[in-house]
């Protein structure tokens, strides 16, 4: 009920906001698909409607105001939507909620923001962090961190293609481990070449800090592109390291784009390993609307129970189903507004 009241209040205030700031933009994505998924166990196959397989369905508000002396005030509020049910995320603007200043020095934001590693991960994923088989599977509990709340963040102005970013998330705890996250990232873009790297530390336990890292690259030549990255989450304690390695290619031909991606996940403990092969196709009716089809299958070894993820959904074998091989076939439509 509180979510509904808050959403109604925000929508009701839009005419007032728009009249006060002409640069306010309302935007969003609506993405839905029909999927056939198999969790890799007997009787584990079902057909369902998913929301956000290529892009997470969302709505948002962003704006900028020129406040003089080369300085601009900016804000962005963005929330997720589940198209299959009509429900919103548990946090109204859980995807991004920031306000900040922008100038010749770069951009500073405060609030809930993407981590420095997240930007590198997106730029080095051939799927653009959409479709089953994306590197989003590397983020989450006991994995890498994609967003940070209570944060202060900085992104530099690109200089000859080189850009630097940093973020600090305050865990705001009174006792015990601070839960603070500190991260940096650097990337370089020139022509069709992209190179990026990032590093986080998270004080999750009293015995030491978790370490998260990424190295990513990409190259685009005409209608062909290749991208790949290596990500790792080295949790405090022995034998807790998680790694993900992926590489993919795409080829555009008129309104059609073909994608292929291969990736591997592994854990130090137990020698768990899983390999994923994913294929996708997109056809653009316009700049704002496209249809797509995708297929992904993950093969786990006998000690692994890894899953696959798309932009807005995930599929993991049931607890104790080690060695199960999940797969997903999706056909969907996506529209930007």
TrEMBL record:
Chief location category: membrane
Cellular component annotations (GO), alphabetically ordered: cell outer membrane; pore complex
Subunit relationships: Homotrimer.
Membrane topology field: Multi-pass membrane protein
This protein's record includes keyword Transport: yes
CDD domains per record: gram_neg_porins (cd00342)
Tagged with keyword Transport: yes
One GO MF term attached to the UniProt entry: porin activity
PANTHER family: MAJOR OUTER MEMBRANE PROTEIN P.IA, PROTEIN YDDL-RELATED
Compartments where found: Cell outer membrane
Porin domain segment(s): 7-302
Protein's UniProt name: Porin
GO biological process, one term: monoatomic ion transmembrane transport
Keywords for the protein's UniProt record, in alphabetical order: Cell outer membrane, Ion transport, Membrane, Porin, Signal, Transmembrane, Transmembrane beta strand, Transport
Signal peptide: 1-20
């Amino acid at each position: 009920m509180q979510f509904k009241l808050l959403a109604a209040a925000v929508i009701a205030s839009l005419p007032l906001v728009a009249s006060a700031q002409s640069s306010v933009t309302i935007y969003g994505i609506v993405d839905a698909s029909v999927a056939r998924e198999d969790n890799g166990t007997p009787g584990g196959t079902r057909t369902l409607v998913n929301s956000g397989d290529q892009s997470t369905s969302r709505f948002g508000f962003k704006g900028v105001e020129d406040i003089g002396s080369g300085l601009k005030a900016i804000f962005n509020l963005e929330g997720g939507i589940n198209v299959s049910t009509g429900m919103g995320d548990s946090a109204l603007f859980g995807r991004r909620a920031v306000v900040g200043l922008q100038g010749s020095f770069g951009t500073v934001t405060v609030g809930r923001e993407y981590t420095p590693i997240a930007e590198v991960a997106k730029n080095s994923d051939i799927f653009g962090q959409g479709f089953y088989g994306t590197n989003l599977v590397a983020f989450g509990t006991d994995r890498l961190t994609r967003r940070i709340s209570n944060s202060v963040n900085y992104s530099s102005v690109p200089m000859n293609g080189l850009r630097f970013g940093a973020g600090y998330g305050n865990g705001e705890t009174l006792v015990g481990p601070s839960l603070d996250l500190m991260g940096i990232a650097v990337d370089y873009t020139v022509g069709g070449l992209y190179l990026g790297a990032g590093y986080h530390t998270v004080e999750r336990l009293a015995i030491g800090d978790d370490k998260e890292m990424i190295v990513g690259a990409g190259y685009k030549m005409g209608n062909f592109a290749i991208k790949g990255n290596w990500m790792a989450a080295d949790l405090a304690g022995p034998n807790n390291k998680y790694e993900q390695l992926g590489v993919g290619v795409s080829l555009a031909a008129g309104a059609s784009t073909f994608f292929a991606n291969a990736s591997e996940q592994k854990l130090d403990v137990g020698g768990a390993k899983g390999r994923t092969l994913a294929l996708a196709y997109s056809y653009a009716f316009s700049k704002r609307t496209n249809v797509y089809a995708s297929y992904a299958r993950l093969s786990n070894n006998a000690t692994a129970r890894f899953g696959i993820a798309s932009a807005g959904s995930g599929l993991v074998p049931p607890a104790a189903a080690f060695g199960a091989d999940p797969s997903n076939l999706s056909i969907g439509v996506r529209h930007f507004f």
